[in-house]
Amino acid sequence: MTLLFQKSRFITVLFFFAGIIYAQADSDFPALTATDIPDGKIIRTSYFGGEALWGIIDGGADIYLEYGFDKLLLQEIELRQTNFRVEFYRMIDPVSAYGIFSVSHFKCNKRDTLTKYVCITPFQVQCALGRFYVSIANDKGTKEADMLTIKLFEIILSRSKETLFEIPARFSKPEYSSQIQNLKVIKGALGFQNGFPTWSEKFEQFSNYIVYLLADDSGEEYSYSAIIKFFSGEEMKKFVAQNPDSKSIKTKSISDNELLYYESNKPESATPNVFFK
Length: 277
Hints:
Elements: H1 3-21, E1 40-49, H2 53-56, H3 61-67, E2 69-79, E3 82-91, H4 94-102, E4 118-121, E5 124-129, E6 132-138, H5 143-159, E7 184-186, H6 189-195, E8 210-216, E9 223-229, H7 233-242, E10 249-253, E11 258-264, H8 271-276
Antiparallel strand pairs: 1-2, 2-3, 3-6, 4-5, 5-6, 7-8, 8-9, 9-11, 10-11
């Protein structure tokens, strides 16, 4: 038996036992139960962790791992002739969960007042719920399916004990109130590719950073306000050297490895003063 074959068998066994471990229930998840849907049924309830995520969302797992993935609960439900896929991605902290949410939702039809960070479309409800990024998708997109999706979401909310992500104080100012729902948290190259490709090249040479970004780019004018936390002070100095202050760029260090960054093509803007203050 070759060494390569032995290694292959060993890896296969590891994945097998990992699957058994993550098939077990976890009371930390606000999972749906049969009593929640007396007129429907739960077809599947499965838990997955670590590398097993690739087997569930092949090609899409990397971004979750980039943000700090811990464990997934997947539930498949049949309710009133509609199929639902409910996914609970438990991340390492609320910042990571909000980050995944912020780069995953687009063109929300509405944002309900049930919770702070939610995006509702006819086919899906997405939410950042503490450490969890929650997605509930239906296969119909009808008005009834939309209402049922929201109903399932309300049940999940009712049993969640999570502490929600807190927006940085600099973005909690009244001047940002009309834009704050567009705040993105980015933790790597895939986050930029999915959430703000405009800055993908700017961060190519960096790693282990967290970017809190609020972009206002309606029309031909734009302004980008960001809090950037680097892994080290040397990384921050390198970034500033590559993006020096100019007519369009303003920077301000607020710690040894944390930077305020503002970029705009607007002729005049009070935003830098508000943001840097």
